[in-house]
Amino acid sequence: MSVRAFGLLMVVFVFLNTTNSQVLINEIQSSNVVTAKDEFNEYPDWIELINNSGNTVNLGGWYLSDEKDSLDKWSFPAIQLLPSQHLLVFASGKDLKQLPAYWHTIIDAGSEWKYVVPTDTVSANWKSVNYSDAYWPSGTSGFGYADDDDSTPVSYGTISIYTRKKFSLSSLGNITSIFLHVDYDDGFVAYLNGAEVARVNLGTAGTAVTYNQLASPDHEALMYQGQQPSVFDISAFIGQLVV
């Protein structure tokens, strides 16, 4: 679920009407330009809360504020926040309190993937839904060498790595946006159920990529430098999600 709140928040205070609940600020995004889009196709800054308790919490009577002398500046509607549930609050200035959606991470950093380091041409079907990757080894992201930040290291000088990840969603009907966050050296092509959804530094969109094709120009990974990964809006490919 998602709630629209007031203007830009650089410092955020949560004023609660109970001392027993464990609703915490999980993440804050200031200067949002692509990570989360509201129903107006705009990118307000946002605050993400999480119910870290084992009980459902009613946020009615709770407040958000960016002023310590006015802790009741913006009031929540009577939202039932389930245990472990996240709530994204857009700092849009529109004071909208409908609940159209919430943001959920499908694949997180450190998730387990199937992967292969090719020494020859890989079947063109490797990116299809029904391709069997049973013989591929498993590893946790990220994959790479030389940066000392890789959970699954590969041999120095490796040109390419093919990775596959299966995931499940409880429902498809309410999905309105999808964003791909990816950190990479030096290029990549991403597919969703066989359809290309993003590409950087590896030729023209829609063209085949060989296992020994070099990316150009160079691009350095960002996260090990303390920066955020690159973000790609792939909402146009929601139709690629299948039952």
What's a quick, concise take on this entry?
The chain has strands spanning 2-4, 13-15, 23-29, 45-51, 57-58, 63-65, 74-75, 80-81, 86-91, 112-116, 138-140, 143-144, 152-153, 162-164, 179-182, 188-192, 195-200, 230-233. It has 243 residues and is mainly β.
Descriptive overview:
The protein has 243 residues and is mainly beta. It folds into two domains: 2-91, no CATH class; 112-240, no CATH class. It is built from no helices and 18 strands. It has strands at 2-4, 13-15, 23-29, 45-51, 57-58, 63-65, 74-75, 80-81, 86-91, 112-116, 138-140, 143-144, 152-153, 162-164, 179-182, 188-192, 195-200, 230-233. The strands form seven sheets. A four-stranded mixed β-sheet has the order 1-9-4-3, with no helix packed on it. A three-stranded antiparallel β-sheet has the order 2-6-7, with no helix packed on it. A hairpin with a 2-residue loop joins strand 16 (188-192) and strand 17. The protein is elongated.
Radius of gyration: 21 Å
Helix and strand element order:
EEEEEEEEEEEEEEEEEE
For the record, the count of structural domains works out to: 2
Question: Could you say which overall geometry the principal axes of the C-alpha atoms support?
Answer: elongated
Cross-sheet strand order for the largest sheet? 1-9-4-3
Pick out the low-confidence regions: 1-12
Reported for the largest beta sheet, the result is:
4 strands, mixed
Keywords:
single chain; 243 residues; mainly beta; four-stranded mixed β-sheet; three-stranded antiparallel β-sheet; elongated; disordered N terminus
